[in-house]
Amino acid sequence: MGTLVYIAIGIVLIGWVWNIVTAFKMGGTLWGILNIFLQPFVGIVSAILKKTSWIPVGVMLLGLLLFLLGGGAATMTY
Predict the structure, then answer these.
(1) pLDDT digits (tens, 9 = 90+) for 40-78
(2) What does 3-57 look like in DSSP terms, one character per residue?
(3) DSSP H or E run through 68
(4) Per the structure, how many domains does the chain have?
(5) Cβ contact 4:76 at 8 Å
(6) Which pLDDT value is given to residue 14?
(7) Vertex 22, ends 46 and 7: CA angle to 5°?
């Protein structure tokens, strides 16, 4: 795997933890637990319904995009 994939995994983890903390603070226990297990779908829904921050969701989606780009680039070099 390429370096971009490892960077993307780190970005996704940062966004995931940030989104969970935001969900527990803004939405309560149920939204926090749902965010732990059903990311990024519940993160998007909680950002819409509970008016939580879109920034953690955007960070996760950016990391996912980088992961896909890094994985695709790594397989094309073989």
Answers:
(1) 788 888 878 877 778 888 898 899 898 888 775 555 555
(2) HHHHHHHHHHHHHHHHHHHHHHHHT-HHHHHHHHHSTTHHHHHHHHHS---SHHH
(3) helix 55-76
(4) 1
(5) no
(6) 94
(7) 100
